[in-house]
User: Which sequence fits this backbone?
């Protein structure tokens, strides 16, 4: 009988049995609860036969779609209410400090919507290609699944990730400062193959991708990128896209800002010029100190952050062997190296990259060391395969001022205190 | 929330590659790209009616503008009924709902206000966006005459037109230019050091290190006490 059944049908007898166990242990004199001698001799986690060791657990189909352990309830996406006027055009954040390796579990991938989650019925899903093509076409989701497929692991980072930190240290937790990023394996059809079906006209220079959601999200993508590594994906890390990630199909634009990865994609229009849509003029343009604004700032820059320890994940020990770990990524390629500093950027030590190093994907780094228990100022600094070096906040502000909002890839500082607590700070 | 951080007294120290395919066409691995002229026979032609139903985009050159017209006098009524509850009677923005007017000469300040009048480069974006996404929660419901009228009203509120009888239409639309058009520049990153500027410093990179700012000073992290202390910008 499983523990769960027992709880509902045999509560009384189970309690009795547990009482009996305790009293018999006490009577035996081998382990007396409350005796410090006994505690010193044996950890109760070991000394007692735990329920899960004695009784049968749930049977195979107790959770047809599995869920995380009930002891991991804190591992969820979180939002910052004051950021936006409405939850339908808002964002929540990936709990980076609770994760390891490079793959983000589907249910933890941050969300950013502009008109809420579109609940698209797959039978009513259509993808249209029109504009400067030989023959405008319509595909169903079943049509899309008959094309040759491709798999690729890519990070998706919102251009506004770390945007709240441009002006100074503001949010205590890498979930909030850096959590607008996720990394999954996409399965789908290369955009080039789809466009080839319709046949591009010679003046085809741009593609406008448009979503079927209540914001009708639209972005202009230059043809060179569309034909390079973009795809229409219908799976993420093996399973169907989650509704909040664009079910049944989304655009994947590797290395480029997340807003371009149009979800619930319904249309691709081919054109000779960009559209200058709201999300590439009013938003996602980078205002500089001199009042000029950069536009079409598509690539995500070389960036890294220490995920543990961090404000939401303090150290539980006071000194000794310690793991520092974090993530690094670049929209321009792979990560060549990551250095870690314990003294706020005065001295640097190379960190160890572990796990796959894939193009435009998250990379995992570690630095293992013997903590002397003194306060530290932790930083990480990535260098990508194109030679771009992750800048300091000062370098970034000197180049762009304070009003850019987007593309903040500056080095993050965490102040690790004697207590093991961690705070988001800025240093000279 | 295009409003930037307004955090108490935050102290701000102002401080393709060309690939040459000479060698190995023969070495081409089993890439899955379909051969140029090879259609796979999937999908079906889109009918003109279908394209008309979905082809709602509008470009700066006027491509996509539907037949129709309107003026600001009419727009005021439509705006009051369908937009003002969030964007304010004068398109000035309410609470954290975006402002659609004002903000001239703020782009170089510490608190830039980006509106159609102060920031947007092209008016076509207003048509494209308002029809596809507004009113928020009832998208793609406006008639072309309503959109033209609303845009004329927004132009009036931004002092870009002065005449509330000016007829905005498919024909007159592209004659309107927005003041900030010239201030957009192309991406010129990287604008921070690369390995070409030398290897990153590893030892004694700065004399001493001081903490200059703490997140706790303005704790706006969820679960923090004072959620009103700051305004962020995710846009």
Assistant:
């Amino acid at each position: 009988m499983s523990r769960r059944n027992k709880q509902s049908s045999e509560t009384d007898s189970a309690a009795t049995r547990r009482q009996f166990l305790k009293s018999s242990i006490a009577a035996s004199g081998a382990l007396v609860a409350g005796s410090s001698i006994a505690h010193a001799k044996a950890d109760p986690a070991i000394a007692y036969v735990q329920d899960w060791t004695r009784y049968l657990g749930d049977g195979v189909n107790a959770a047809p779609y599995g869920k995380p352990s009930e002891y991991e309830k804190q591992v969820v996406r979180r939002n910052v209410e004051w950021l936006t006027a409405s939850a339908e055009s808002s964002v929540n954040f990936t709990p980076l400090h609770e994760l390891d390796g490079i793959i983000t579990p589907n249910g933890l991938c941050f969300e950013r919507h502009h008109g809420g989650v579109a609940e698209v019925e797959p039978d009513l899903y259509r993808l249209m290609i029109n504009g400067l093509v030989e023959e405008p076409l319509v595909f169903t989701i079943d049509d899309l699944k008959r094309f040759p497929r491709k798999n690729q692991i890519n990070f998706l980072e919102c251009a506004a990730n770390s945007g709240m930190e441009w002006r100074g240290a503001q949010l205590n937790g890498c979930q909030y400062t850096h959590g607008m990023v996720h990394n999954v394996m996409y399965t789908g059809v290369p955009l080039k193959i789809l466009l080839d079906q319709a046949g591009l006209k010679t003046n085809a220079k741009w593609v406008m991708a448009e979503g079927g959601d209540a914001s009708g999200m639209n972005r202009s993508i230059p043809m060179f990128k569309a034909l390079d590594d973009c795809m229409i994906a219908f799976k993420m890390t093996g399973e169907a896209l989650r509704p909040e990630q664009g079910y049944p199909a989304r655009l994947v634009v590797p290395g480029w800002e997340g807003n371009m990865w149009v979800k619930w994609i319904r249309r691709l229009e081919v054109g000779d010029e960009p559209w200058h849509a709201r999300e590439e003029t009013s938003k996602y343009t980078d205002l500089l100190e001199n009042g000029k604004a950069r536009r079409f700032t598509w690539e995500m820059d070389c960036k890294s952050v220490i995920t543990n320890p961090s404000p939401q994940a303090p150290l539980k020990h006071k000194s000794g062997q310690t793991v520092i770990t974090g993530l690094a990524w670049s929209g321009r390629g792979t990560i060549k190296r990551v250095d870690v500093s314990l003294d706020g950027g005065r001295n640097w030590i190379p960190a160890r990259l572990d796990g796959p190093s894939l193009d435009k994907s998250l990379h995992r780094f570690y630095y293992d060391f013997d903590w002397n228990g003194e306060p530290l100022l932790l930083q990480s600094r990535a260098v990508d395969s194109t030679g771009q070096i992750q800048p300091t906040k000062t370098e970034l502000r000197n180049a762009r001022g304070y009003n850019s909002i987007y593309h903040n890839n500056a080095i993050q500082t965490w102040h690790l205190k004697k207590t093991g607590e961690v705070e988001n700070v800025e240093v000279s | 929330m295009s409003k930037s951080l307004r955090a108490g007294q935050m102290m701000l120290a102002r401080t393709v590659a060309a690939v040459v395919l000479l060698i190995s066409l023969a070495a081409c691995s089993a890439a899955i790209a379909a051969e140029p002229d090879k259609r796979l026979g999937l999908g079906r032609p889109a009918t003109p009616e279908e394209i008309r139903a979905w082809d709602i985009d509008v470009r700066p050159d006027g491509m996509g503008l539907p037949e129709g017209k309107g003026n600001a006098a009419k727009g005021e009524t439509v705006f009051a009924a369908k937009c003002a509850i969030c964007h304010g009677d004068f398109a000035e923005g309410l609470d954290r709902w975006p402002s659609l007017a004002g903000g001239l000469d703020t782009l170089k300040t510490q608190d830039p206000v980006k509106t159609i009048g102060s920031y947007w480069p092209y008016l076509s974006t207003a048509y494209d966006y308002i029809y596809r996404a507004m009113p928020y929660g009832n998208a793609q419901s406006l008639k072309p005459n309503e959109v033209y009228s609303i845009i004329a009203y927004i132009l009036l509120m931004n002092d870009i037109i002065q005449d509330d009888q000016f007829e905005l239409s498919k024909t007159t639309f592209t004659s309107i230019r927005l003041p900030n058009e010239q201030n957009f520049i192309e991406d010129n990153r990287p604008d921070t050091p690369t390995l070409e500027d030398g290897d990153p410093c590893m030892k004694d990179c700065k004399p001493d290190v001081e903490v200059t700012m703490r997140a706790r000073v303005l704790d706006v992290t969820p679960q923090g006490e004072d959620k009103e202390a700051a305004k962020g910008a995710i846009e």
In short: Chain A touches chain B through 120 residues (CB under 8 Å). Chain A has ten helices and 24 strands. Confidence is low (pLDDT under 50) at residues 1-18, 23-35 of chain A.
